[in-house]
């Protein structure tokens, strides 16, 4: 007679009813990943939200401070202070929007691109480590699924002309 293979057990830390809540697990995973990324970036003298602004400005979109505030879910006053800091560091420049002189279009400088490249490597390493228990094809699928979940909830950003 063959013995039945015992069912795999979850680690004790995951043995409570809340782990059946997808929202809790998404929030917890995101919190841990962000804390790890924040620590890695702090070693470079950078905060996570600073990195997010650099990464958002890497796109070809002409984004304003207001666009970034909505996109990154940061208070507009916080965004102004952050852009001021980034401008002083030589990572971002403000340009008047020719079609709306009240708005600024933000651009990465060469220094900003270099800072983004260094920070991006640190964040990539953190994500790789965090997701190391998940096969590569599942990581791609997870990213795709999360994109699908957020697609209709993402703030609409209207690129400046």
TrEMBL record:
Highest taxon of source: Bacteria
HTH marR-type domain ranges (all copies): 19-151
Classification via SMART domains: HTH_MARR
Signal peptide as annotated in the record: none
Pfam families attached to this UniProt entry: MarR_2
PANTHER family attached to this UniProt entry: HTH-TYPE TRANSCRIPTIONAL REPRESSOR YETL (PTHR33164:SF43), TRANSCRIPTIONAL REGULATOR, MARR FAMILY (PTHR33164)
Name this polypeptide is given: MarR family transcriptional regulator
Organism listed in the record: Streptomyces durmitorensis
Origin organism lineage: Bacteria, Bacillati, Actinomycetota, Actinomycetes, Kitasatosporales
């Amino acid at each position: 007679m063959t013995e039945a293979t015992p069912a795999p057990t979850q680690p004790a830390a995951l043995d409570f009813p809340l782990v059946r809540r997808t929202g809790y697990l998404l929030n917890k995973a995101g919190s841990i990943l962000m804390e790890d990324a924040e620590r890695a970036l702090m070693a470079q003298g950078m905060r996570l939200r600073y990195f997010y602004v650099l990464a958002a400005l890497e796109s070809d979109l002409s984004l304003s401070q207001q666009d970034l505030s909505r996109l990154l879910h940061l208070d507009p006053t916080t965004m102004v202070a952050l852009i001021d800091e980034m401008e002083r560091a030589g990572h971002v420049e403000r340009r008047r929007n020719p079609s709306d002189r009240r708005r600024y279009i933000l651009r990465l400088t060469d220094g900003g691109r270099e800072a983004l490249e260094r920070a991006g490597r640190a964040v990539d390493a953190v994500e790789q480590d965090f997701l190391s228990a998940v096969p590569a094809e599942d990581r791609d699928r997870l990213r795709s699924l999360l994109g699908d979940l957020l697609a209709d909830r993402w703030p609409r950003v209207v690129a400046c002309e």
